[in-house]
Design brief:
13 strands; five-stranded mixed β-barrel; two-stranded antiparallel sheet; Butyryl-CoA Dehydrogenase, subunit A, domain 2; binds flavin-adenine dinucleotide; Butyryl-Coa Dehydrogenase, subunit A, domain 1
Length: about 575
């Protein structure tokens, strides 16, 4: 007891923590604002969307932030309700109102129309990045699936299909909007989609239409009005080449269509506000989307690749939020009489987090720009489909890993409070990030695809040439030390990967995976250098420290990734 007769209880109420949270995720977001200015092809388009980005950034920092936290509470998670009405058995998925509030704010921006015009991906991805500062929030995955279907519909749909579906998919009124879902994975395989056994048979009662029977094991956004799925037409060959792509109008106002049964919702580690189900399909009415014999290729090109790009933005949002959260905490919290941010160890951690977050966002926006160039068949672009695919797959892998590392470092910066679910978003972000690492392609699967791509059609040369010219083009004197050493590392990496490829093994080794990881990080670095170089011309040099920090990170990963003796 002290001299006043009180117990010496010092209890910090952390009101400063609530008060210092940002009111907007867009204003003063230099990485995003400058990235948009750098990567956007059409500055007029960007200017036209400026107000919406500002407004959405403010919602994302406040109302969406709050709604995402509310919808993720255990009692508010989606649940299935099944009941009988007359002779009908009806299933409905119930969401908390906070989930729908996010949907209204997101789709009210009109962002989906950006997927209907070619070459607007950079701006669309800015909206997704802002949303993803709140984690998956039950809406990032549906956004990606719907974006993919809009692209697929524009490319493959018949005039009648476009007329019937596009207005619904592009709705800005959330209550009328149609969402899409994508069902590939079955219990037999998520990566090995060619092993899938769901079948499609011609509908005897509807000429040219199909009936689908089988099970789908991971059905995210299961409440979507339309699902796109892979199924094997009866009699088609085995493997991925025998898969067709089908459109399944799966839900009307009364619930799910006849023949669709939700077995259960998954009890997931992360992305818990999103309803992911196991479903059974019993002769459910469907129609083909595009030529049936090109189903798998079209699924990859329009749907999975869109989702992989979106996944990079999920990661950029998570990493940037972790960074922001840790910086705010370290600027306000004191230990041993000093602000945490004054300790060199904390400063180093924050610097590395910032560098990784910037790296992911730069690479993601660059990929969106590449897609813009591909979609507009720009003659001044050196990007090809093959180069884009390699960089996209490598980026999906590394962006998700770097984001998870950044969030984990953020948790460490907040000490004990970092581990507490209702103190900050970080525990939820970590859970979401672990899911980002697996869905849309597990690491090994993306590495194996890159290995196959490098073994054919000189894709490896294309990739290294692209990176080399990016480093050579960044001529700002302040970057010289980094670009010069990056070029040397690139050269030794090329030799290392060539040795791996010349071994001519059917499957990649761990050595290939680690080297490919360093290659991905060099792609990220090349983008940071390009942006920093461009900014240096305008006298801005504040992001060069991050470039150097990310280079240090690559150098140590490259050392750590030297091939080890085979442990087997
Ligand atoms: C929360 C969540 C939601 C999802 N939502 C959907 C959805 O809406 N629609 C959908 O279609 N899918 C969805 N998925 C499924 C997801 O895409 C798969 O989980 C993923 O593709 C991996 O497939 P798998 O789970 O069958 O793992 P497996 O393919 O069995 O992989 C297991 C392990 O083996 C490794 N492996 C597999 N193949 C190879 C190889 N060739 N070389 C080396 N290693 C290999 C993998 O890297 C992994 O480490 C979702 C998954 C999750 C976690």
């Amino acid at each position: 007891m002290n001299t006043n007769g009180n117990w010496p209880i010092s209890r910090e109420d952390f009101s400063w923590w609530r008060e210092c949270q940002p009111a907007s995720f867009y204003n003063r977001n230099d990485d995003l604002v400058r990235g948009l200015a750098f990567y956007c092809r059409d500055k007029g388009r960007l200017a036209a969307y400026q107000d919406r980005l500002v407004r959405f950034g403010a919602s994302a920092g406040t109302d969406i932030n709050e709604a995402a936290e509310t919808s993720n509470r255990p009692n508010n998670l989606p649940s299935v309700q099944s009941f009988s009405r007359g002779r009908d058995y009806i299933q409905q998925v119930r969401y908390d109102s906070s989930y729908h509030a996010i949907g209204s704010m997101l789709y009210g921006t009109g962002v989906m129309s950006l997927f209907s015009t070619p070459a607007d991906n950079v701006i669309a991805m800015a909206f997704l990045h802002l949303l993803s500062l709140n984690g998956e929030a039950g809406h990032a995955c549906p956004f990606a699936c719907t974006a993919g279907l809009i692209k697929a519909m524009n490319a493959l749909g018949t005039a009648e299909q476009k007329q019937r579906h596009l207005p619904n998919l592009l709705q800005t009124d959330y209550d009328k909007l149609y969402h899409a879902a994508q069902y590939l994975a079955e219990s037999r395989g998520g990566s090995d989609v060619g092993a899938n056994v769901t079948i499609a048979e011609q509908d005897p009662d509807r000429e040219g239409k199909w009936l689908i029977t089988g099970e789908k094991w991971f059905c995210s956004n299961v409440t979507a009005q339309v699902a796109v799925l892979t199924a094997r037409p009866v009699g088609a060959i085995e493997g991925t080449r025998g898969l067709g792509l089908f459109l399944l109008p799966q839900r009307g106002p009364e619930g799910f269509a006849n023949g669709i049964e939700i077995v259960r919702l998954k009890d997931k580690l992360g992305t818990r506000s999103l309803a992911t189900a196991e479903i059974l399909l019993k002769r459910v009415k469907a129609e083909a989307l595009g030529p049936v014999d090109r189903g798998f290729k079209n699924m990859m090109k329009y749907l999975v690749n869109t989702s992989r790009l979106c996944n990079c933005l999920f990661a950029s949002g998570a990493a940037q939020r972790a960074c922001l959260t840790a910086e705010l905490y370290a600027d306000h919290r004191t230990a041993f009489g000093k602000r945490l941010s004054k300790f060199p160890l904390v400063r180093y951690m924050l610097g590395l987090m910032k560098a990784k977050s910037m790296a992911i966002l730069s690479a993601s926006l660059c990929l969106a720009r590449m897609l813009d160039d591909l979609e507009s068949a720009s003659s001044d672009s050196t990007v090809t489909d093959r180069l884009y695919r390699v960089l996209l797959n490598l980026s999906k892998y590394r962006a998700s890993v770097l984001a998870r590392e950044t969030v984990l470092a953020g948790i460490e910066c907040l000490g004990g409070n970092g581990t507490i679910d209702n103190f900050s978003i970080l525990p939820r972000l970590l859970r979401d990030c672990i899911v980002y690492e697996t869905w849309e392609g597990a690491h090994n699967v993306l590495i194996a695809q890159t290995y196959r791509d490098f073994r054919k059609e000189s894709t490896i040369g294309l990739t290294f040439d692209y990176l080399e010219s990016a480093f050579r083009a960044a001529t700002a004197p302040e970057l010289d030390g980094v670009t010069f050493r990056a070029l040397r590392l690139l050269e030794s990496l090329r030799r290392r990967l060539m040795i791996e490829l010349e071994a001519d093994e059917p499957e990649p080794s761990w050595g290939f995976r680690t080297a490919a990881g360093v290659l991905a990080d060099l792609f990220f670095l090349s983008r940071m250098c390009a942006e920093a170089d461009w900014e240096a011309q305008a006298g801005l040099t504040d992001r060069q420290d991050s470039v150097k920090t990310f280079w240090d990170h690559i150098r140590s990963s490259a050392r750590a990734s030297r091939p080890l003796p085979n442990p087997i």
